[in-house]
Specification:
This protein is an alpha/beta fold. It has helices at about 15-25, 30-40, 45-55, 60-70, 90-100, 115-125, 160-175, 180-185, 200-210; strands at about 1-5, 25-30, 80, 105-110, 125, 135, 190-195. Strand 5 (about 125) and strand 6 (about 135) form a beta hairpin. The longest helix is centred in the C-terminal third of the chain and has 15 residues, at about 160-175. The mean pLDDT is about 95. The structure holds BIS(adenosine)-5'-pentaphosphate and magnesium ion. BIS(adenosine)-5'-pentaphosphate binds near residues 31, 35 and 59.
Length: about 210
């Protein structure tokens, strides 16, 4: 089963993908996480994408599809594509790649949340280098500024600064939102009310996946 998680930055895609990966053994493929790992390693790819990501623009379709192909080739489990595709060109590229490896897109889950809420969520997000993500309002760590899991100091992502948040929202509207009608016409589209508390969102996702009889 191959799922796509689509939605505004900050709509909760990463949070829910991590839960499904932990509880249902899905492979979680987040292009944003993959790029951040490359930046942390200081690799050539990391150096190429660092400035693009911190300015809130999109990495080129060519680079993104190359990174995705390297992941799809070794996939054994059900998979969630989180934050990919982000343009119609990436969606078309994904279809070709999946076909090459005898897979297909089974469902696209659209995380519906309004713009005001995503700005609030992103402004309050705190991240840890171990991968844990917190929120100072809805999911604070036990000790302020410190990761519950590994004890490291939490940080604010470069692209969670106010001016970059608004750039990412504009980029989403221009380049990513056309994917809504793209997948709707393919009959793969499911709306998730992502403005509710996390566990309620998770239950709706679980129900949607089972009802879709994927
Ligand atoms: P990426 O890392 O994918 O960022 P994004 O899509 O902008 O999404 P976010 O990770 O910001 O939000 P999310 O939906 O995962 O929300 P989260 O669960 O963390 O991409 C970063 C950059 O990389 C891009 O801007 C681009 O430059 C590049 N890139 C990546 N993929 C690319 C691609 N395919 N093509 C080109 N470029 C690409 O939650 C957010 C906050 O809300 C957290 O604090 C969380 O605790 C909280 N929260 C979550 N759920 C709830 C809830 N139900 N209620 C209240 N709070 C909640
Ligand atoms: Mg994310």
């Amino acid at each position: 089963m191959n799922l796509i998680f689509l939605g505004y930055p900050g709509s909760g895609k990463g949070t829910q993908a991590k839960l499904l990966a932990e509880r249902k053994n899905f492979a979680h493929i987040s292009t944003g996480d993959l790029f951040r790992e490359e930046i942390a390693k200081g690799s050539e790819l990391g150096k190429t994408v660092k400035g693009i990501i911190s300015s809130g623009k999109l990495v080129s379709d060519q680079i993104v599809l190359k990174v995705i192909e390297s992941k799809i080739g070794s996939l054994k489990n059900d998979a969630i594509f989180d934050g990919f595709p982000r343009t119609v060109e990436q969606a078309e590229g994904l279809e070709i790649l999946l076909e090459k490896y005898s897979r297909k897109v089974d469902a696209v889950l659209f995380f519906e949340v309004d713009e005001k809420e995503v700005i609030k969520r992103l402004s309050a997000r705190r991240s840890c280098s171990c991968g844990k993500v917190y929120n100072t309002i809805t999911n604070p760590p036990l000790k302020e500024g410190i990761c519950d899991s590994c004890g490291a100091e939490l940080f604010t992502r470069e692209d969670d600064k106010p001016e970059v948040i608004s750039k990412r929202i504009d980029v989403y509207k221009d380049l990513t939102s056309p994917l809504i009608s793209y997948y709707r016409t393919q009959g793969l589209f499911h709306i998730i009310n992502a403005s509710r508390p996390g566990e309620e969102v998770y239950s709706e996702i679980e129900k949607t996946i089972s009802q879709a009889k994927i």
